């Protein structure tokens, strides 16, 4: 890493300033080395030069803060992110945060982040739906889980086999057989619909 950082420093003084992707790589290298102060210094440098940070920069930092067990700090960084000029969270950023909050048993806060994302018109993908629905099932919030499962189907996303199995099991354990049948029919409907040419 030292040689790469030396090359990075030389390129800055040679009249060919690095661009955001190069800076993001350096931020990532510092994060992997658990040198978060150096990563933050590079982010400050990016600001001074007017080339970032961007949402990818923050995704890198958030992942490493979470891996380091610094969930509160990660949430604080996430909240500050929107105040950065041109640095709105992307779907990947929201996915990182929802997964972290669900894993930290902060389901209510995960749903606040989810609603914020939806209010901004950002559509979640299967991994986000799966994380939230399975977490709701674990917390025995099955009505909420059913609501999000229906939303997922409404936007045209089909569940993975593992996710659907876990969802069905939670519903069956709660004696909600009719709900399982209802959703099983909805999931199977596209598979059984003939294509018309």
TrEMBL record:
Domain PROP1-like PPR intervals: 71-184
Protein's recorded name: Pentatricopeptide repeat-containing protein mitochondrial-like
InterPro entries registered for this protein in UniProt: PPR_rpt (IPR002885), PROP1-like_PPR_dom (IPR033443), TPR-like_helical_dom_sf (IPR011990)
Keyword RNA-binding: no
PPR repeat segments: 19-53, 54-89, 90-124, 125-159
Domain of life: Eukaryota
Family the entry assigns: Belongs to the PPR family. P subfamily.
PANTHER family assigned to the protein according to its UniProt record, in alphabetical order: PENTATRICOPEPTIDE REPEAT-CONTAINING PROTEIN 3, MITOCHONDRIAL (PTHR47941)
Keywords: Repeat
Stored Pfam families: PPR_2 (PF13041), PPR_long (PF17177)
PROSITE patterns in UniProt: PPR (PS51375)
Listed Gene3D superfamilies: Tetratricopeptide repeat domain
